[in-house]
Design goal:
The structure is a homodimer.
Chain A (H helix, E strand, L loop, with lengths): L1 H4 L5 H8 L3 H9 L6 H14 L5 H8 L4 E6 L5 H15 L4 E6 L4 H13 L4 E5 L5 H8 L4 E4 L8 E4 L3 H14 L5 E5 L5 H16 L9 E3 L4 H14 L5 E4 L2 H13 L9 E6 L12 E4 L2 H15 L13 E3 L8
Parallel strand pairs in A: 1-2, 1-3, 3-4, 4-5, 6-7, 6-8, 8-9, 9-10
Antiparallel strand pairs in A: 10-11
Chain A binds a DNA duplex through helix 3 and helix 5.
Chain lengths: 336, 336
DNA sequence: TTGAAAGCGCTACCAA
DNA sequence: TTGGTAGCGCTTTCAA
């Protein structure tokens, strides 16, 4: 009776008040079998009177599935990941799935702990957004729950993963800079323990080499994907007194920081120095000048994750192709 | 047996393999009662062997609480709300709560639907981040689940709410502009159906009046809190050929858009036009120039929500005071 | 200290 | 078309 007090009704209460068996109410609710018209009507009425809502917990326990997809992100505040999150949600919402989101903060142990929590809550599948867990860890988890990972290369019976071509994106960015006449191109790299960062750096190096431009180690300085690291990196570049006409930043945030460092010293973008980012965050269209950057189709990454997950969970799904990276040319690069 | 196949172990399996009763295993797990040392050791061993993890679903069904807090946000992509989200998570994590996040997109019907879903999943409490539901709707929900709302003024037996002083924040911003010698101040307002937006507008109007500055309706143009609306708003202001030396934007995003409009026309900030925002988003420190804006202590709002929620759920909690708004002066305003 | 068993709210099987 | 009932995995009386 505590349930009556707390205003929560059970299926049994509906049944008894409607003078039918719980089974019948259940059948009515789920359309599992024909229910005679008169009973159907009384049940409907009683449900309404009592404002009855099924207890999804009990349903889940019974059915063995929670209609919930766990998402391991790295930060709740990342505009980057959250764009993908929206994609995931849009993709799975119609099938009745909700998202249970946890963040691992790029720390393998924490990530594993979160996935463990997710599994403990019996999510039907886990979506992993990059991170630092080992492939082995992921494969281990996948014995307990189907996994779709983005920014990883694991594959397994119940594990799907896909990446974007960071290397190619970086090449495209640098190619563009070169096509605009730049030869002295600095790079603010991302953290070396970060796969995407390494690939972007490789793309930078290889493209320079391809064009016979000698690489100058003083031109690449390491950041950590944050605005402040971009600011710092550029300051150190400026102090070191190396000459360069363009900067390729490992991501947009870093580019923002670099932009500010330039602003502080009255160096104009793009008149004095050209700047290219990576990611194409929402706000990169509104920086001054609007940032030329490599667009990551994050929303589509999200829907791709969602669709793959639905497919693994046995839902009919159209193929989920994710478009590639593409350079979006705005106004932060000048032709020299 | 399907559980064995799928690699998921139940408490009964642990019990039988350890040669004890399920009750004993449960007691061991929860420390509910003394368990003899030898049994404890075998149980521990078996749990390890079987890699047993309790089914939280079953626990929740039995205990009547899911250790989950539902959060109704408006957009998964909003840096504004997500900062608060992190605060909520930090506040409740230690007590073992997870967050179930859904977004209502500023649409009362959708919001209600989401809260309904949250309740259906038997969250222990619901945190509401502003939105457009009526107070009555919220109060109705609160008969089924405790609610903490931010940016609302409802109060009820199981409903707590708190706001930030948007009016005061706007006054402070405009006061500052006036103190720097500005008298012709434009305002890009937020959507009129948005309480915060109305308050900020009122603060703008009243502060002007207080200083005997005649209000000029041509100086206020309405946006919708987005960058693009800021851009549009400023363009229309510029086209209308009204004179002004400063802009007070209803939020930072709008300010970004306005900033770009200015940039497009080679109008310098702050040399030619001063600009003040509202919110103090993460990135406002890195715009060029860094944006002077009214800081909203969103993280603290989040922890405030979390702490209030924990208190309602019966956890001992220190008082949860949320600091007020404060102007952060950076470089987008000039003394005229 | 331990076990047997009831029951959380639901679904689905088996009979009728 | 309907009802009775077992059982999902767990916790917690009640007895022993």
């Amino acid at each position: 009776m505590k349930n009556i007090e707390s205003g929560i009704t059970t299926l049994y209460q509906v049944a008894s008040r409607a003078g039918v068996s719980p089974a019948t109410v259940s059948r009515f609710l789920n359309g599992t079998a024909k229910v005679s018209d008169d009973k159907r009507r009384t049940i409907e009425r009683v449900i309404d009177e009592l404002n009855y809502k099924p207890n999804r917990l009990a349903q889940s326990l019974k059915m063995g599935s929670t209609n919930t997809i766990g998402v391991l992100t790295q930060s709740l505040e990342s505009g980057y990941f959250n764009r993908a999150m929206v994609g995931i949600e849009d993709a799975v919402k119609a099938s009745g799935y909700a998202l249970l989101i946890m963040s691992g903060h790029w720390h393998a142990d924490e990530e594993a702990e979160r996935v463990e929590l997710l599994i403990g809550r019996r999510v039907d599948g886990v979506a992993i957004l990059t991170g630092n867990m080992s492939d082995k860890q992921i494969l281990d988890f996948s014995r307990r729950v189907p996994i779709v990972a983005f920014g990883r290369e694991v594959q397994g019976e119940r594990t799907q993963a896909f990446c974007l071509d960071n290397y190619g994106g970086a090449c495209e960015a640098v190619e563009y800079l070169i096509s605009q006449g730049h030869r002295r191109i600095a790079h603010i790299a991302g953290p070396p323990d970060h796969r995407d960062a390494r690939e972007r750096l490789a793309g930078y190096n290889d493209t320079l080499a391809k064009h016979g431009i000698p690489s100058d180690p003083r031109l690449v300085v390491t950041g950590d994907f944050s605005e402040s690291s971009g600011l710092l990196a550029l300051n150190s570049l400026l102090v070191a007194n190396v000459r360069f006409s363009a900067i390729f930043a490992a991501n947009d945030l870093t580019a923002y920081g670099a932009r500010l460092a330039l602003y502080r010293r009255n160096i104009r973008v793009p008149e004095d120095i050209s700047l290219v980012g990576f990611d194409d965050l929402e706000s990169s269209m509104y920086t001054t000048p609007p940032l030329t950057t490599v667009r990551q189709p994050l929303y589509e990454v999200g829907t791709g994750i969602g669709r793959r997950m639905l497919a693994m969970l046995g839902h009919q799904q159209p193929a989920a192709d994710v478009p590639g990276l593409s350079l979006v040319v705005r106004e932060s690069v000048r032709l020299v």
